[in-house]
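Blinded run. Sample ID left blank on purpose so nobody reads anything into the name before looking at the predicted structure. Input follows.
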Amino acid sequence: MKISYLVDVPEAIPIIAGWLFSEWGQYREGNSLEKIRGRLELNLNKETLPIIIVATINKTSVGTASLRQSDGIENRPTLSQHVPWLASVYVPTEHRKQRIASKLVNYIADIAQAQGHKKLYLRTEDKVTFYQKLGWTTIETLNTESGITTVMYKNLGVDESIST
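Blinded prediction complete.
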């Protein structure tokens, strides 16, 4: 398996847009497959947020994840200072149980740490146990537009004197 920045494999944009729309598209009013594809095309970055990565096996896309400034719930007072966020971790059903998601999550954590962040945040509606096994800790549980949402963080082990 190879993990790349989406900017290096832009041919993966249509499949990733399809995954994201089918998994989360219904939660944003007025969302469409075309809008998601357009956002992906506008966010082909390696150094500034958002950063999107894609996992491939034999040039076939098998998963994605992103590092973002926010993930839609940071406007709550208790979360407004939390940056950056792991988001959009997705592996199609036929590629699950191969540790692809774990590798994507860890790769994003490495990117955040390399940028000097000491913590990484996420929200999840149904994968709390998965993230706990990867060393994430629950901050709080909220009722959001997508249901009961757990907000979690992971310490990245960066020296506080050099972090942002």
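Unblinding after everyone has recorded impressions. The first helix runs from residue 13 to 24.
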